C-alpha cells in the first residue's frame, strides 16, 4: 500500500467536525485497532478541510497519543504528517474504493479555554 504525503497550500485550514471515536479491528467491535509501530489505540475524527474555494469533510485516523486535550467541534486544528492511502476491495461482487487519511497528531491552533471556576 502506497502512503502519499499530502501537501497543503498555505491557505489550507482544518476545523474539528466530530469528536474522536475509537477505531476497531473487527466488525464485532471487541478489539481496538492499534498502531503497528507504537501499539497506540487508533481513533477516527472528522475534520472539515478548507482550501481556497473548496471545502470537504475528511475522516482521519489519529493515534491516541496524537489527540490534544480540549478537542471539540468547531476548533481549528492542524494535522501533522498527513498521509493519504488509496484503497480498493471487492465485496459481494462490487468494487469499493477510496482514500484513507492518517496523521501522526493534531495540533490545536488556539489554546483550549480554561475550565470555569465554580
Describe this structure in words.
This protein has 118 residues and is an all-beta fold. Strands 1, 2, 3, 4, 5, 6, 7, 8 and 9 form a 9-stranded mixed sheet that branches. The relative contact order is 0.24. It has strands at 4-5, 13-16, 21-22, 42-51, 54-63, 76-80, 83-91, 94-102, 105-108. The protein is built from no helices and 9 strands. The termini are far apart.
**Measured distance between first and last alpha carbons:** 51 Å
Main beta sheet, described? 9 strands, mixed
Residue share in helix:
under 10%
The tally of helices reads 0
Q: What is the mean pLDDT?
A: 89
Instruction: Note the beta-strand portion.
Output: over 45%
Instruction: Give the structural class.
Output: mainly beta
Written as H for each helix and E for each strand, in order along the chain, the element string is EEEEEEEEE
Number of strand elements: 9
Unreliable runs, pLDDT <50, ≥5 residues? none
Taking all Cα atoms into account, the compactness measure Rg is 16 Å
Shape: globular
Amino acid at each position: 500500500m502506497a502512503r502519499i504525503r499530502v501537501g497543503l497550500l498555505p491557505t489550507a485550514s482544518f476545523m474539528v467536525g466530530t469528536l474522536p471515536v475509537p477505531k476497531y479491528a473487527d466488525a464485532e467491535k471487541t478489539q481496538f485497532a492499534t498502531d503497528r509501530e507504537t501499539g497506540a489505540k487508533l481513533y477516527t475524527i472528522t475534520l472539515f478541510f478548507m482550501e481556497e474555494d473548496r471545502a470537504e469533510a475528511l475522516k482521519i485516523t489519529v493515534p491516541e497519543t496524537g489527540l490534544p486535550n480540549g478537542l471539540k467541534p468547531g476548533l481549528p486544528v492542524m494535522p501533522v504528517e498527513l498521509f493519504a492511502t488509496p484503497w480498493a476491495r471487492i465485496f459481494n461482487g462490487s468494487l469499493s474504493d477510496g482514500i484513507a487519511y492518517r496523521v501522526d497528531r493534531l495540533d490545536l491552533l488556539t489554546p483550549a479555554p480554561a475550565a470555569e471556576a465554580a
